[in-house]
Amino acid sequence: MATATMSSSPITQVSQVPTQTNLQPQLLTRLLLDLRGKRFSVDRETIMNLPESVLLCLFPNGLVLSRQSMALSDGGDNEEDEELYGVDFDPECFSFVLSFFRNASDSFYGTATQPGLFAAQQHLMDGSPSSDFGGPATSQNPLLTKQAIIVLREELEYFSIPPKDGNATTNEQGIANEALVEIKRRSGKYLMEKRNIFTALQRNVHKENNVAEQHLIDMLCMSGFDRDDEWGFRALEPSRCCISSIALVLLKTGIMHNSGPVTIDYNQMATAQKLLLFWRKPARKCWWDGIEVDLSQGGGPAMTVKLWARRVWTLELSLV
To answer: What Gene3D superfamilies does this protein's entry cite (predicted)?
Structure first.
């Protein structure tokens, strides 16, 4: 019969047995991270609120929040065991970022016992004639409803050119002798003590007369940084001639919470809106910085070293 022929066709035949191929994998609500031996238990929402530039450092191969795609198991055959991500990232830097974002969120949105800034500025979104930002523009300005944080990171890789006295050198295999290793250690210590954020970039501005870089410094200092600010976190990477630094500041949006009604500085808001270009779109700048330094210690003989640094800045805006 025609119906029998149709039912046996491989094209029209439909299995009556339900399959699970379309089921969504179970998403994790919390992640257990192992950062160089120190463990953190972090909820998924907190992870997803972190800056993309930080997430790329934490998970360079990508992050999949399903139980079927864990990078590392903590052992055991029990499916209820918490999965573990092994992450090559400084745990103290991670703690610094988590703490800053948590405090910024609590200050803006409030806690169970204390209201935040957002409660006092909700009238800016009502679109009424009395609102400073009335009309359709209010719904298109996330700075009115989110806490904005400027994220500035620096990856500094340094190279020491030792004196020509021949004491600091490498062997046939390219392995540094103790004298050269000591110069690298002193170079790292010297750079670690230079915590001012803008000194190196300002030096490059003066050398190259780069107007765009000067404009970048001016914009950042108008938006939350001070010209003499220091890095919030700065540390040498283990077993590498590399220093990682990060600075986090609240974006100055021009929304002013005075004793009276909340007001807006329109010029400041316009500057803040320019930084929305970096929301979810980290921008990078790389340049070489070369200086001569004296690494002598304890009144010993002078040790002048040419110190080259390859600096990579990453600028991003996060909305919490």
So the answer is: Potassium Channel Kv1.1, Chain A
Which residue is associated with the tokens 């330094």?
Answer: 293
Domain count, the chain: 2
295 in Cβ contact with 273 (< 8 Å): no
Q: To the nearest 5 percent, what fractions of the chain are helix, strand and coil?
A: 35, 25, 40
Token pair, residue 143, equals 């700075």
What pLDDT, in 10s, does the model give residues 31-50? 899 999 999 999 988 998 99
Q: Do 118 and 33 sit in the same domain of this protein?
A: no
Closest by CA to 292, choosing from 183, 126, 160, 195, is: 160
Q: What is the 3-state secondary structure (H, E, C) of 256-275?
A: ECCCCCCEECHHHHHHHHHH
- Reported pTM: 0.82
48 and 135: one domain? Answer: no
Tell me the per-residue pLDDT of 233-244, one tens digit each, with 9 for 90 and over. Answer: 999 999 899 999
- State the average pLDDT over residues 46-73: 77
Q: Are residues 60 and 140 in the same domain?
A: no
Q: How many Cα atoms within 13 Å fall on the side-chain side of residue 131?
A: 17
